[in-house]
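In pairs, describe these two lines:
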Amino acid sequence: MDLSLEEKYEALLRELKDERRERNRLKRELMVRDDLVSSFQRSKAFQENLHNIVKKQKDEQEVFLNLMLEKSRDLIVLMDANMKFITGTRGNLRGIGLNADTLTDKNFVESIAAVLSPESHDILLTHINEAFELGEPVEYNAEAVMVNGGAFHHTTTIIPFKDKNGGVIGVMIQIHDVTEMQKVVDEAKQANQAKSVFLANMSHEIRTPMNAIIGMAELTLREDIPPAAKEHILTIKQAGANLLSIINDILDFSKIESGKMKIIPTEYLFSSLINDVVSIIRMRIVNSDIRFTANIDSNIPNTLYGDEIRIRQIILNILSNAVKYTEQGSVSLNITGEITEEAGTILLTIEVADTGKGIKEEDLGKLFDDFIQIDVVKNKGIEGTGLGLSIARNLTRSMGGEISAESEYGKGSTFTITLPQIIRGAEKLATVENPEEKSVLVYEPREVYAKSIVYTIDNLGVICALVTSESEFYDVMTAHALSFVFVASHLLESTKRVMEKLGSNAQIIILTEFGETVSDESLRMLAMPVQTISVANILNGVSDSFSYNENKSSISRFTAPEAKVLIVDDIQTNLVVAEGLLAPYKMQITLCKSGIEAIEAVQADDYDLVFMDHMMPEMDGIETVSHIRALEGEKFEKLPIVALTANAISGMKEMFQENGFDGFLSKPIDTMQLNAILERWIIREKRSQIVETTGKAETATDGEYHKKLLEIFRRDAENAVNTLRETVETGDIKLFTTTAHAMKSALANVKEDEISKTAYTFEQAGINGDMEFIRHNANHFIESLEALIQKLRPDEAESDSDTETEEDTIYLTEQLRLLTSACDDYDDESAYAALDLMKKTPLKNETSAALESIRDMLFLNSNFEGASERAAELLKQYNGGD
């Protein structure tokens, strides 16, 4: 069918439209293709650029990794699960003889076996296997010993690598060389050990001569000497005590610093601790303007469990500080207790308050630091190390307590210590029988004392009233019937007049300053500071007081003529000092110079107490005690034995206790500590009543003591010279060391300081095992001793001879009769006079030896019976046996 023109035109238009549409489609496709091509080209360029960047970073990382592996100070090795080497620090591997290039794909553990000793290799392999098995890092310290003989200390860490399932696919071994660090540690240990040795030696070296200084000062004070001389001797003794205090601070600080300060809790009586503290402090303030008070809660249980020695040390430290920095005013000790929620425990609150110099606010923060002395300019001249408060804080904290301080500059300070203690008994510190039936009137105008006394009486549950004037006293006495009147000593006469006028039957108790005496000795006294135990005893009618007179140099709380004491020391010089200090107690004293003699002595007699020296030749104190404790019989197990030694370093007391000793008394011997030991071990049944004594040694006449001391030393030195020569020849370094140690102590006692220092040098050589030094140099030391011995020998007229003239025999016979008679009459002065006269006569060797033995019996043991028998035997020989 033919189309019309119009239809053909429309058909053509449709074709053109379709063609245009197709052309547009093709055009769009072409544009998309061009975009894709362009994108591909850009992507390709980006990938190429990225590849270049990654390659560059990888190259840089590889460079850095290689640098790290090359330069690392640690030996680092990466291994796979089969222990094949992957990579490692090349330089360190070369250092132990391995090449990283030849290790690849080889078993590293097998390869390193070529350079490590079998033992070191086994240790490494064991820990690598442990890391694989546990899947956790393993670290250990060891010394690697090399096949070539080298060695190094190391810390090795083995870290396992895990896959996503937790399986170990390899490990990294990092070995850190700590050889240099180990050297530093070893050097530090050696330095610390050297310091400990130095402190041990310092303790012994200073305490040994101090034993002579303080001991001889104490004995001299017992003699009848001029007041001026007594004042000088007291100064010497106090200076010695101050020096010992400084030494003790340094030693305690060293023990704390080294971690060797042990807290040793034991069951103890709180009353004993309080009595000790109060007695010591009031002795220190006798001649001062300080008023000391002690307000102790009587409800504190008396039997507690803790380290009594350290608690006493803390309290005394704080109290001593308060006294030191208080020129006038008051110092008070206040102790209360609170039962804690924890059953069987009490929290003690110990407060020490003073009205002294005080502490600036800016200084309070550093008060407990080491070696700190506050306000040095203002406190110039006050002795101390600056360690006391630091030591007190460390000790308090080590016992679970705390210490703090408050102060107002120029007005005083208050130190507060809180300390938990275990309760071991229900009995209270002090109680009054039937308190409701008793009443007390305190007549004391001194406010500080009045408050303390009233607190103490109220705390004991007894009715108490205070008056401060005579009119008040009269009014109260008129209105009430009272049991006791506590009155200040200076008001005693007026008080007695009022009470006589009123017809009062109240018991008068005089309140005195410590050391003060009163005219009426029939009345009971309470020396300040009063404290709950003393007041309770007064109210219960029990006497516990003893007076102190500052004009008398020493106090003996008791005598015990029936008590037997054994003193063991290999140096007679030391025996003389110890025996002299015990003389006022009038006990039966036996002296031994060796451990063997001591063992024989304790088997032959029953002793109440033994003082045992530590360092002795042949058998030292510890060995001796061990033998004594091993003897059959209960008495040897219970025999009180106290260690007596100048060595007061860390752990010594504990060491003695662990080895069978019952106590520890360090040299120089402190008379108060000595008295405390005697009070503890000499049973009450053997004590006489409390007495007051000047303590004059009764073993020798005036002037005889020092002379005899030198004679005894001379004989000690003569024996030592022989021993030293023999030990140098035989090489017995142990006996040589012990003998040099003994001579060092004895030389210091007789003030031969230079030779004593030489003896110390040889003692140290012996301790260090330096026999070569001893052999080459000992002769000079021995010659020095011999020269000193010769200087101390009697004049030629006094020396021994082989013959005696007839005239000499007649003279000696007469003097022996006088000596025998003097001994029978216990007349030591006449006995020594006879001995001195005979000594000036030429004597046979055997006669001289016999007279020396008689002198020893008198001087060392006051053995008049034995001396009389020996003199009678000698007299019989001179009379031809008649």
